[in-house]
Design goal:
With 114 residues, this protein is mostly helical. 61% of the residues lie in helices and 7% in strands. Strands 1-2 form a two-stranded antiparallel sheet. A hairpin with a 5-residue loop joins strand 1 and strand 2. The model has no long low-confidence stretch (mean pLDDT 76). GO terms for molecular function: GMP kinase activity. This is Guanylate kinase/L-type calcium channel beta subunit domain-containing protein.
Length: 114
């Protein structure tokens, strides 16, 4: 909450509403089992490491730039693969990498409902 307040872009009431909504969404996700994984970004480095493992990218090298931005160095053979993908293909490959084989089918079903 401190980070949100320091930004000065929202009132305290708006921040509290966001936090209540987030807590409700997390609880709903846990109870309904609609999420296979929940990542908490309370520690950027820990969250980032968990995300890399989840996506099967834990062998990639990362660093923080002088500006504080996270940099990811991908193996060159993977970079050329990613560069050839369309945004839709990249999304599909990411869904496959998450590990749940039904995720791409579930996503496609949701898209067709729209």
């Amino acid at each position: 909450m401190t980070v949100l307040m320091q930004r000065g872009t929202e009132t305290e009431e708006q921040i509290m509403k966001r936090l209540r909504n987030a807590a409700a969404e997390i609880e709903q996700g846990k109870s309904s089992k609609i999420f296979d994984f929940i990542l908490y970004n309370d520690n950027l480095e820990d969250c980032y490491e968990k995300l890399k493992k989840l996506l099967g990218l834990d062998d990639f090298v990362s660093a923080v730039s002088k500006s504080g931005a996270m940099l990811i160095f991908l193996p060159q053979d993977r970079v050329s693969e990613f560069a050839k993908l369309t945004p839709v293909q990249l999304l599909k490959e990411t869904e496959k990498a998450v590990g749940d084989p039904q995720l791409p089918e579930q996503h496609a079903g949701l898209v067709h409902k729209i």
